[in-house]
Amino acid sequence: MNEPTKILLDESELPRRWYNVLADLPSPPPPVLHPGTLQPVGPDDLAPLFPMDLILQEVATDRYVDIPADVLDVYKLWRPSPLYRAHRLEKALGTPAKIFYKYEGVSPAGSHKPNTAVPQAYYNAAAGIRRLTTETGAGQWGTALAFACSQYGLDCEVWQVRASYDQKPYRKIMIETFGGVIHPSPSDLTAAGRAVLAAHPDSPGSLGIAISEAVEVAAQNPDTNYALGSVLNHVLLHQTVIGEEAIAQFAKVGLAPDVIVGCTGGGSNFGGLAFPFLREKLAGRMDVTIRAVEPASCPSLTKGVYAYDFGDTAGMTPLMKMHTLGHDFIPDPIHAGGLRYHGMSPLISHVYELGLIEAVSKTQRECFEAGVRFARTEGIVPAPEPTHALAACVEEALRCKETGEEKVILTALCGHGHLDLAAYGAYLAGDLVDHELSETEVASAVAALPKVPA
Amino acid sequence: MNEPTKILLDESELPRRWYNVLADLPSPPPPVLHPGTLQPVGPDDLAPLFPMDLILQEVATDRYVDIPADVLDVYKLWRPSPLYRAHRLEKALGTPAKIFYKYEGVSPAGSHKPNTAVPQAYYNAAAGIRRLTTETGAGQWGTALAFACSQYGLDCEVWQVRASYDQKPYRKIMIETFGGVIHPSPSDLTAAGRAVLAAHPDSPGSLGIAISEAVEVAAQNPDTNYALGSVLNHVLLHQTVIGEEAIAQFAKVGLAPDVIVGCTGGGSNFGGLAFPFLREKLAGRMDVTIRAVEPASCPSLTKGVYAYDFGDTAGMTPLMKMHTLGHDFIPDPIHAGGLRYHGMSPLISHVYELGLIEAVSKTQRECFEAGVRFARTEGIVPAPEPTHALAACVEEALRCKETGEEKVILTALCGHGHLDLAAYGAYLAGDLVDHELSETEVASAVAALPKVPA
């Protein structure tokens, strides 16, 4: 173990710009469409919800976007994040592979989410906005946005899916500790929420309903905007600090990854780590396999269709071409709440269609098995989402054990599981159920896709 | 903000030895006494519970003890820990003071506890021990020992106070995730537990009962030892990596603290940070005020007596001369569970008697107010224990604001509060009650101290 356990960067080595993968792709992704006109949306269509700086980033084709100094200052509270060499996991597996993990759990919210929450809050504050609204499921994104708003003096109002609100009181308290206001959704504060409550007074809520409530409040109040934690181009753009740092960290030890594995829900953590490496691959400077890992119960990339669909369940967003299981698909209540999304970032989808990345799916018990093994060797209890990446990492490392290959594997460890321990309790008690989505279930789920002429 | 936010050390700068403050004190502390004979205890008295390496460290007078290579390798999973400059807290307070905090929440258990859990597990494993037993209250120590045992292939068995076991299921799950076995105390697994249950079938338990159970199992099984997370000399010795790193980190920015504030329960986090600085002070190389902060409802240093007392409630341990409120004192159920100890480390007590450190007390609402302010500025939700240090830090920084002094303040931030969010919920809901222990209550509490001839 003479090689370092942690590869650290100094604050002076923090990336100064985000990377826009669009600049290097052989073709652009299909345009986002207005659901009424089926014409490409323009900046003005998005102006009621987002500040112009973010809208311009959403459609930018420049290779790099400078990170504002005020954002860098807040990033320094936890960035650059460490790149770890998993000496102890390697030893436990008996693999000749070199396993590395880029750990985003050091952030205030405990995940990669603040990487975009901070610039989103910054640009909104700079545009004179006073309040941000958003939805949250398990609560990672709501926590990140509440923290980011506290840094720029913005109010933050979060609609959390009622079922999670009731089941995960710690997330609610953490959001309040950062100064955010949180409502269970459906709420009686919006027309959308009241309509649901009128029909279903005991509704457990859904991400789709919570989005509708947050968007409604933002659209109706000029001093209020809306913020989204994944899927969109500007969100993935902000997350590329992860991959840029990792490249610099590998350079310090004279290595480069042969395989990258990361979990995909909406795609922001995966894209953030993978895109800078994809740039290196496209330029012929690296030969790296990039592999997305998704839950077998919500396999948008591996079993979904590539088609125009709504980003939300209620069908209020623009239409995006992406890998989807259908916008009214309700995934199993698996514990990796951040991966329970019917669709996939259009950018990730496009890159997958281009054959630039691979995708596999994993069932949750295999994932938690990898998570527990990781905790007992490396000392970090991972969030349920990155246990998917860890399961794929273990699989690759054991493959190397068979072949004798000394591959360098890079794993995206996008957050800790301190607020997800109930999931580990269920796994350790043997209470978890696996469900691999069948072709029949997929066919049924995608039947309701909106009709868009080719 | 051109000065760095985080001052990091490379792994190669990890301290290679622990510091023993005994070597530099003007007089030794009074001996620990056998409760039956009232004679000083010898190594053989401790051999049924501890391996000889730790017993020798407990009585060592050498200035330094080398850290074994296998311990350093595990330390590298999170050490050196970062020293932060609290730019944003300073700005929010409008103080000319420079505030720094040494953050131990980056460890696997989320606190400073693994600094000693790891070497304790290592020395026990090296001595051929197969299992460690311990007690835990809120759960920080049990988590740390379970993690440490997982690193050296030891079984770990934890007796957790029944009230905490029922109220804090996440801690139980985290201990199990690290491979530990956890029992609510009182349990029917020990004579001590069965005796309590016979008299009080619904007993909520206490730290004293849990210690009795863990000690009983260790004493009766040759392959099993017992481990303690604070109070003892060897525990504080292991924690000095905190202060040694901080000294090296301050040297990197050409500064030294004028004031150090840290919370004290059993004293291990405070001693770990403060003792290396005390060495510098005693040698005339630094002029630093060192201030212990304790809860107003459990003020052993500021209101207790300096006398021989038992370390546990049941009166089974050797007698230690320390600041105590009496071994049968039951502190209010404040949320800083780690500070609810009737006594104080004999080393800290001795140093306090020598006039080398100061002590103050704080009520819990002032502490949580400081904790919330810290979260909203610095992004870290502190554990309830270090909010005591933060309250004293804020007080000192506001004093500097009045006087215009640009003091350098160093705060011990010994852990995060991710598993203590219920306490923040109670604070934010206005449900917390303050209780400053009165002189009458103290007098009543210390009336039952054991009689030891001077």
UniProtKB/TrEMBL annotation, chains A, B:
InterPro entries: Trp_synth_b-like, Trp_synth_b_CS, Trp_synth_beta, Trp_synth_beta/beta-like, TrpB-like_PALP, TrpB-like_PALP_sf
Record-listed N6-(pyridoxal phosphate)lysine modification sites: K113
Catalytic reaction annotation: (1S,2R)-1-C-(indol-3-yl)glycerol 3-phosphate + L-serine = D-glyceraldehyde 3-phosphate + L-tryptophan + H2O
Group of enzyme by EC: lyase
EC number from the UniProt entry: 4.2.1.20
Keywords from the UniProt entry: Amino-acid biosynthesis, Aromatic amino acid biosynthesis, Lyase, Pyridoxal phosphate, Tryptophan biosynthesis
Domain Tryptophan synthase beta chain-like PALP positions: 77-415
Domain of life: Bacteria
Pfam families: PALP (PF00291)
Pathway(s) the chain acts in: Amino-acid biosynthesis; L-tryptophan biosynthesis; L-tryptophan from chorismate: step 5/5
Cofactor section: pyridoxal 5'-phosphate
Family indicated by similarity: Belongs to the TrpB family.
Subunit details: Tetramer of two alpha and two beta chains.
Function field: The beta subunit is responsible for the synthesis of L-tryptophan from indole and L-serine.
The name this protein goes by in its record: Tryptophan synthase beta chain
Protein's organism: Phytohabitans maris
Gene: trpB
